[in-house]
Description:
This protein is α+β, with helices and mostly antiparallel strands. The protein is built from four helices and nine strands. The chain has one domain. The relative contact order is 0.18.
Amino acid sequence: MVIFETLTKQIYRDLFKFRAILFVVVITGIYGCAGGGSFGRLQWSNSTTDTFESYEIVADHQYYVSGGKYKPWAIIAVHNDYTLRSNYWKKADDLTADQLRMWVRNMKLDWCARYLYNGAHVVGPNQEKIGLWYSFQPQTTVKLLADNTVMIYTPNVTGPNSILNSRCFDQDK
């Protein structure tokens, strides 16, 4: 009987420790994510799609591409009021309408993705317009940091949740 009581007390102590540790981990995770910046989103826009597909270069924006040099997976235009922080987007210095035309046409040559490309406004947490997005990817992470610095994640082209992976490259179908 004494062994049973001792064992029961030990189980309750261990359970209390587990709950305390779990509580600390959850609270740290919540505050760690919340304290690192504000999140924006993509706001789909037919006019933005038309802007890219008419090869119009929007003034006061810096353009970037993700993917290949001749056939990118995405094009973004970040307003000059913001600074893009990324190691993956390639800056398109001295962009011309001919270069933009080549990118958009090559992107749409892909038989699978040609109808999936759409434009969106990149907006901040207060609906402020940060820039423009053109890609097959329907969502991305947009994170506002200090001093008008923004992180915009590149499209997921190889993961299990990639649209291209699920629609184009499924070998079982």
